[in-house]
Design brief:
Blueprint lengths: L5 E10 L2 E11 L4 E5 L6 H9 L6 E6 L9 H4 L2 E4 L11 H11 L4 H15 L14 H13 L5 E5 L7 H16 L3 E6 L2 H4 L4 E6 L2 E6 L1 H8 L4 H12 L1
Parallel strand pairs: 3-7, 3-8, 5-6, 6-7
Antiparallel strand pairs: 1-2, 1-4, 8-9
Helix pairs in contact: 3-5, 4-5
The protein binds adenosine-5'-diphosphate and magnesium ion.
């Protein structure tokens, strides 16, 4: 077995009086799509922010691609793609100009950028719209452009915070198809969602509630073991038992 690409071990994080995470642990391997599933306030964003290294935990440890993101050098950090919930693109810049801007930011050389630009426009199907300003894109296209920008440096780990929140159903399906292409190519992907239908699609899920992982495993197996008819029932039963 290969080593996990993402390891969260006993993560605790408090904001003043609010314990956002009370001991969150899970791991994700290359080629695996892991879902962090839970309602608003469960701790999904905090978990992803700790994994991305924008802040450190109060307790516990994070390892991504074998390094500690908070202190890793830029070379290592480029192996980690992070798409926050509010991903800021430049509204006045076109799709192409946004890609160019982020490529410079990531320090991509010309040849790598050319190859990545072609590939990413292809897999996101944004190629026909390269001249369109980001501010004029639909919600789904905007998310796809944000994803393309996050993927520019060819990360081996991708963290996405509710990427389909507020996205229409067709674009939602396209985004998920895209995520599966990425994991099929060997990426380790962690995606947070509050949508139960999306939870069921993940290879493995952690059901997060009130800063704790209540249940973890393969969606179909969890449903069978819990005798739940729907994933929603499974989640609500787990919450009830934890109360
Ligand atoms: N910067 C912050 N300051 C104060 N409280 C915060 C902060 N970030 C998150 N929280 C609190 O921590 C808990 C978990 O939040 P969050 O990780 O954003 O959950 P989710 O992404 O699942 O909605 C919530 O109670 C939230 O209000
Ligand atoms: Mg959130």
């Amino acid at each position: 077995m290969t080593e996990p690409m993402v390891i969260a071990a006993g993560l605790k994080k408090r904001f003043g009086a609010v314990p956002a995470l009370r001991g969150v642990s899970f791991s994700v391997r290359a080629g695996e799509l892991y879902g962090l599933v839970g309602p608003d306030g469960a701790g999904k964003t905090t978990t992803l922010r700790l994994l991305s290294g924008v802040m450190g935990p109060d307790e516990g440890t994070v390892s991504v691609a074998g390094a500690v993101p908070l202190t890793a050098d830029p070379e290592v950090r480029r192996r980690l793609g992070y798409m926050p919930q509010q991903y800021s693109l430049y509204g006045d810049l076109s799709i192409d100009e946004n890609l160019t801007f982020f490529a410079r930011l990531f320090g991509l050389d010309r040849a790598t950028f050319a190859a990545q630009r072609a590939r990413l426009l292809d897999i996101t199907r944004l190629g026909r719209f390269v001249g369109r300003r980001a501010a004029a894109l639909s919600g789904g296209m905007y998310k796809k452009l944000a994803l393309a920008c996050a993927l520019l440096p060819k990360p081996s780990v991708l963290l996405l915070d509710e990427p389909t929140n507020g996205v229409d159903p067709v674009s939602r399906r396209e985004l998920w198809a895209l995520l599966f292409e990425l994991v099929d190519d060997g990426m380790a992907v962690v995606v947070s969602t509050a949508y139960m239908d999306e939870a069921e699609r993940c290879h493995r899920v952690g059901l997060l509630h009130d800063g704790r992982v209540l249940l973890e495993g393969v969606p179909g197996e969890l449903m069978a073991a819990g005798g739940s008819e729907t994933f929603e029932d499974l989640f609500l039963d787990a919450v009830r038992r934890a109360a």
